Amino acid sequence: MSDSRDNALTTANRRIDNSVSSLISRIQVKRGSGRMVILLLVTFAFFAALRPGIFLNPVNLQNIGVAAPEIGLLSLAMMIAMLTGGIDLSIVSIANASAITISSLYTAIATASGAEAAEGMALLIIVAGLVVGLLCGAINGLLISVVGITPILTTLGTMQLFNGLAIVWTGGVTISGAPAVLTSIGRSTLVGIPALFLILLAAAALVAVVINRTAIGRKIQLQGANAVAARYSGISARRTLMGTYLVCGALGGLAGILFLSRNPAASADYGSSYVLLTIVIAVLGGTNPNGGFATVAGVLLATLTLQVVSSGFTALRLSDYQYAIAQGVLLVGVMVFDQIQFRHRRRASSVTTSQGAVPAAPGSKEDGQPQ
Amino acid sequence: MNALKRLRGANNEGILLAVIIVLVIAMAMASPAFFTPSTFFSLVRSSMVPLVFALGVLLVMVSGGIDVSFAAIAIFAAYSAIAWSSGSGIDPGLFGAFLIALVIGALLGGLNGVVIARFRLPTLIVTLGTQGVFKGILLTYIGSRYISAGNLPPSVLAAGDAYLVNIPGAGYLHAMMVPVVLVTIGVWWMLKYTVFGRGIYAIGGDVEAARRVGIKVVRTQVLLYMMVGALAAFGGIIYVILGKNANPQSLVGSELDIIAAVVLGGASIFGGRGSVLGTVLGVLLVQLINNNLVLVGIPSTWQRAAVGILLLAGVGIQALATVRASSRSTAIHEETVA
Lengths: 371, 338
Fold this sequence. Notes:
heterodimer, A: about 375 residues, ABC transporter involved in vitamin B12 uptake, BtuC, two-stranded antiparallel ribbon, 16 helices, about 80% helix, B: mainly alpha, two-stranded antiparallel sheet, about 70% helix
């Protein structure tokens, strides 16, 4: 008896699953990872052809593998926030808060009871950094889901708050010191692949599983695709958003740990250009900034593409400012391109299905309030 | 009851004013140095440029968007005008400098407007992107050199020493206050009494409804962003005049103080709500805190965190009030959520 009920439940669940995913795919323009693979290969070939000596140097390639992970983690966090239709501008500040926590805890313990004792407690110290990330995420989640402030304003405010507290804590200067474990992780490689990059891959795989295979992941997607439908499906927006920003905070905390693995110094101003960069990566990777659609593979590929562009620019002796121009043009260009494509598709599909049911009301997403 | 409501104001301006008064009294009690003419004069002086920027941000917010590129536009326009003048040796005069900067600002703002209105893209993300582009182009192709007072056009430099009121030992009111006040009144008048201004509110309230009553949404938005760009440029030139230098690295990074001021002034990020009076009060509140934290014994490192807390507290109270108001009218509706 219970067997048959379980069976009925699974079929029902599967049916809901299918209808949800077909709904989501109908609402969203498919911005598959195929485009990103091509883009990555093209940019790589472009810079390799222009500056083969510098760009194809193994050291340069390794550098891409070492620099990409922290940006990739932050972009994944941005992607998850965008998936719900929100945004997390505070993510870089969270990462810095985590890095500063670890660095100053380590230094404090090392000066109080010797470097050896501090190394012994390294794991605990690193966990403390992650906890700070989660705590910051919880503050965001609380303000967004319980108090009801829009994500833009919440994270704009907490960005300022976390960053401001970090300045108070450090006095505005760069502090140095990090557990030796982290530094050695930052230097180690596995069959030529930097360990940091493997950490990114592991985290990305975990995020992919959470988004595509768990209940909270489904809820996050539906929340972004159609908040009203999510509410009437009995999904608690409060819990979903809380979960979302907790995951963002955890990813930010992990990114802070990677900051320290690359360079045993932390400051409140580190990575101030990353806010724009992570948004560029998320959008380029196919994330819909209005919510409801994103792929982890797309974001990973976009991270690598941007890192290739960055190191290619360095090889061409172009400045950070020119890189910023490229990012801005890329961001606006991709959004304009997607929008034009979307309109074409909509026009095409409304011609073929002009009679019959309303086509899944994509207008409600695309024509909504500009944020 | 009605009198109370009027005192409170449509966007809680009255509450904001009360907060400012309480804060002033608290600061005066904490520090005897606070209640002096020089505090007042420096507050006015430091509020001038943020107020001009805030008016631009207010316009965008009333239309339902958010703009983070205004600081980049401001320094781009002001620095380009000054750099051209000091490079070519031509002094365009004070009005000439304003004019050049305003045209550049309007063009850059127009670019924002075209992208946002024509393609209906999220304003925050677009302006974040254009901010990077504007700053990058300025520093790469126009100049990254700091222009000191000696190299400013003489007319701009002279304007830096023009005072309305000058009390030796206590401070002065800068002559640039006149154009700032005029622009503030102009924006207030435009928002309240012109078709264009009402159109901005209409678009912010409901784009579709605005379109159906016959407002040309795309054209209004493009014009709006051009105006905001020109306002930013105006603020940028005043910034150069007050500081007597042109530094291409400045201004960008201070956006949040302005956005916080506008939001605290009662403007809604969803559009359709906001007032010039509220914005003026919001700017005064933020500047009051920025200027005088040190005076009451709080270290200046707390400044950034303080503005963040202020913003969160301001929007938090507004959000809670909205939730309470909507649960009162649709109690059944809310039950399904909780």
